[in-house]
């Protein structure tokens, strides 16, 4: 009894700060729920970040600074891998340090936890993703194929000039599915695991992959470490996202949870990404459509197989159906930490 009382009375140590209590316990769990609601209402806070720049833009600028100085042609492949690794680790360290600062300030008490809430709300992109995908649907209806191409070019990297209405719709749905994991599920997951440090480190990893993790001549070696690290960071969240989508399809109207699950299990590994296939196949099965397939990136044709055995003649109506599935998935995603907490406390 004496030993137990002594341990319970001990002050937090430096190790306790570096390895925080999981975010679903105590006040940090409440902060997480508040942050998700704040993001759902206000999105990316355009009135603020149009003036000072979004934190992800800050990360992008830091990556560009390193890349300009270290990614030099004429270097050996091994040297480029080393330089890219240094770039990645430096950017992640800066982002994690910022998260550590937020964590340190938030530890002073309830009032200061507002910084924790704002950080999570800014780095989780529920409303922002919905608005960007919805813009494609609106543009297709209002301005036809030219408007749809312009709108979808804002969220995908493929050549929009090669896309018909089905191609534009397919690209928008794929972006919605993939970014549900990268922009919603994974940041929440890493916040639950590591608090502000975890979510900031993840956003740095994901931004590194987006900027330098490409398989082209410029980044094949320089961005290799970033791409592999992003695959690792998204391994668990991607599969959580797939399961959440299947559950959302089962709950929602005019979607099939059974088909989502069967398609995900059958086709997820057909995708060239070890992670993105789980969300995209779940969407394809739930909506009874075919996604992926051949598409152009610049002048290069990527001849990927279709995933899902449903319709290929997609329209703006299918984008709207996908957004309803996305909304239900976001609600479930916000709920799973609550369920986990109840189960954990029960144990």
What does this protein look like?
The protein has one domain. The strands form 2 sheets. A two-stranded antiparallel ribbon has the order 1-4. Strands 2-3 form a two-stranded antiparallel ribbon. It has 14 helices and 4 strands. By secondary structure, the chain is an all-alpha fold. The N terminus is likely disordered. Helices cover 72% and strands 3% of the residues. Helix 3 crosses helix 7, helix 7 packs across helix 9 and helix 11 crosses helix 14.
Task: Provide a quick synopsis of the model.
The chain has helices at 2-9, 14-18, 26-42, 46-52, 55-70, 77-106, 114-123, 126-152, 165-212, 224-233, 235-251, 257-267, 276-287, 316-346; strands at residues 291-292, 295-297, 300-302, 306-307.
Question: How are the strands of the largest sheet arranged?
Answer: 1-4
Mean of residue pLDDT values: 86
Domain count: 1
Structural class: mainly alpha
As residue ranges, the low-confidence spans are 1-25
Shape assignment: globular
In DSSP terms, counting alpha (H) and pi (I) runs of 4 or more, how many helices?
A: 14
End-to-end CA span: 22 Å
Q: State Rg.
A: 21 Å
Indicate the proportion of strand residues.
under 5%
Helix content: over 70%
Largest sheet: 2 strands, antiparallel
Number of strands: 4
User: What is the string of helix and strand elements?
Assistant: HHHHHHHHHHHHHEEEEH
Ordered list of secondary-structure elements with their pairings:
Elements: H1 2-9, H2 14-18, H3 26-42, H4 46-52, H5 55-70, H6 77-106, H7 114-123, H8 126-152, H9 165-212, H10 224-233, H11 235-251, H12 257-267, H13 276-287, E1 291-292, E2 295-297, E3 300-302, E4 306-307, H14 316-346
Helix pairs in contact: 3-7, 5-6, 5-9, 6-7, 6-9, 7-9, 8-9, 8-14, 9-10, 9-11, 9-13, 9-14, 11-12, 11-13, 11-14, 12-13
């Amino acid at each position: 009894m004496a030993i137990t009382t002594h341990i319970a009375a001990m002050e937090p140590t430096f190790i306790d700060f570096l390895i925080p209590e999981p975010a679903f316990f105590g006040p940090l769990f409440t902060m997480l729920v508040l942050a998700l609601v704040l993001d759902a209402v206000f999105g990316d806070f355009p009135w603020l970040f149009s003036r000072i720049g979004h934190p992800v833009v800050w990360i992008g600028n830091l990556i560009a600074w390193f890349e300009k100085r270290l990614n030099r042609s004429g270097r050996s492949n091994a040297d480029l891998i080393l330089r890219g690794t240094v770039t990645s680790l430096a950017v992640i360290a800066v982002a994690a340090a910022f998260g550590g600062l937020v964590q340190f300030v938030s530890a002073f008490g309830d009032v200061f936890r507002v910084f924790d809430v704002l950080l999570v709300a800014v780095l989780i992109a529920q409303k922002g993703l919905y608005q960007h995908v919805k813009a494609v649907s609106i543009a297709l209806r209002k301005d036809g194929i030219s408007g749809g191409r312009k709108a979808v070019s804002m969220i995908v990297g493929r050549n929009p000039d090669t896309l018909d209405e089905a191609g534009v719709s397919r690209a928008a749905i794929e972006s919605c599915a993939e970014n549900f994991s990268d922009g919603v599920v994974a940041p929440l997951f890493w916040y639950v695991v590591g608090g502000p440090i975890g979510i900031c480190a993840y956003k740095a990893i994901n931004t590194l992959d987006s900027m330098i993790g490409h398989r082209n001549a410029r980044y094949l070696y320089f961005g290799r470490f970033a791409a592999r690290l992003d695959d690792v960071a998204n391994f668990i969240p991607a599969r959580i996202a797939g399961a959440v989508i299947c559950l959302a399809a089962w709950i929602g109207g005019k979607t099939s949870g059974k088909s989502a699950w069967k398609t995900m299990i059958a086709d997820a590994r057909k995708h060239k990404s070890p992670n993105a296939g789980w969300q995209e196949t779940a969407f394809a099965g739930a909506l009874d459509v075919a996604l992926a397939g051949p598409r152009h990136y610049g002048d290069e044709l990527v001849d990927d197989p279709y995933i899902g055995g449903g319709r290929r003649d997609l329209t703006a109506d299918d984008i709207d159906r996908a957004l309803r599935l996305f909304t239900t998935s976001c609600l479930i995603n916000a709920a799973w930490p609550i369920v986990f907490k109840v189960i954990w406390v029960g144990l």
